[in-house]
Amino acid sequence: MPAGIVALLGTRGPTSRTAIARDLGLSPATVTQVTKDLIARGIVEELESVPSSGGRPARLLGLAGRAGVALGAKVTADHVAVVTVELDGSVRSSSSHDFDPGATGALDRLGQILTTEVAALDGELLGVGVGVPGSVDAQASGIVDAPTLGWRAAQVGPILRQAVGTPVLVDNDVNTLAAAERLYGIGREHSSYLVVTIGRGIGCGMVVDGTIYRGANGGAGEIGHLPVWDTGAELPRCTCGSTGCLEAYIGADAVLRTARDRRIIGRRDTLAELLQAATTGDEQARAVYAEAGELLGRALAGVIHTVDPEVVVLLGEGVDAWEFWQTGFEPSFRRSLLPARKGVPVAVEPWTEDQWARGAASLVLASPFDSAGNGGEQGRLVRARLGAS
């Protein structure tokens, strides 16, 4: 409970006791007693007064200085992005480290990277969050299957906890973005939503009743591997080893392959050249994106019918070309929805590379709100470090 109050002040900023009680579902008397203790311990302080609807002005409460930071690491096929994040979600620092996940001793190398970063924080650290492009059995244990990294039952959590000596939470990278939305984005206003990413892969984080839905084995949300085609010659092979997957048609490599095969861009050109062509009016380039958007729209409509979210958030490296995806996506998506679902909103948010790692840090910062217990013992250790377990 104290951890929830501290985290709320970190994510929402100065807040009155009345608002804290309402947002956390606590009685005013309980909030008064707990915040009194937090003030005495120097974690929380009283700030200015604000007008109230009746009676004396309400006093706002805020964090007293820095109550702690989280370290977030996003693991990719060629580097690790690391950020230090304050409780309010602001990124204090960021760095990037070369990394080969297929090399001998790769996890030891990852541990060395994080150990160096942890040492610079001088006791402020609440914990480390790690995002990976694959399935994770549980945030607390952190056993990873990630085909794009060449990892099978990789002992990410145990090895990193041994290396850095702090709580370590591990999850699918798109789930980490869903956790960030819970704290700092659309999850403040909606309890059930989808976070869908387009880029190298196609991913989906599912939040149901305020909790990330992870499935029986931590693999929920792998919509990039929905089978969308099962006939025809030479179906493209997906990174998962199957054929006909959504990702094999509209992931970054697939979009690039289509553009090259149609000779819209050269064999050595990249997505930057394709986007430039579309931006300058090349109708063939725009058609590549529109076709990808159409397929995404149909597939996502099926997910909407399954999960019934309040809203969908679109993120990822691919959103820089969304204006061209959207021409195919919007009519296909709406046409494929049941009448009662046709109005579901889709919010497209700006993207920066730091967001992956910031999402990973959110696994730590969301621990006080972890009503489902996804963080297990590691989450409890984070709450203890927050001074309020």
What can you tell me about this protein's structure?
It is a single chain. The chain is α/β, with parallel strands linked by helices. It folds into three domains: 2-63, Arc Repressor Mutant, subunit A (Orthogonal Bundle); 69-173 and 354-385, Nucleotidyltransferase, domain 5; 191-309 and 317-348, Nucleotidyltransferase, domain 5 (2-Layer Sandwich). The chain is 39% helix and 22% strand. The chain contains 13 helices and 16 strands. The chain has helices spanning 2-12, 17-24, 28-40, 106-119, 156-164, 173-184, 246-250, 252-261, 271-279, 283-307, 322-336, 354-365, 376-385, and strands spanning 15-16, 44-50, 58-63, 69-75, 79-86, 91-98, 125-132, 135-136, 143-146, 151-155, 168-172, 193-198, 202-208, 211-213, 311-315, 346-348. The longest helix is centred in the C-terminal third of the chain and has 25 residues, at 283-307. The mean pLDDT is 90.
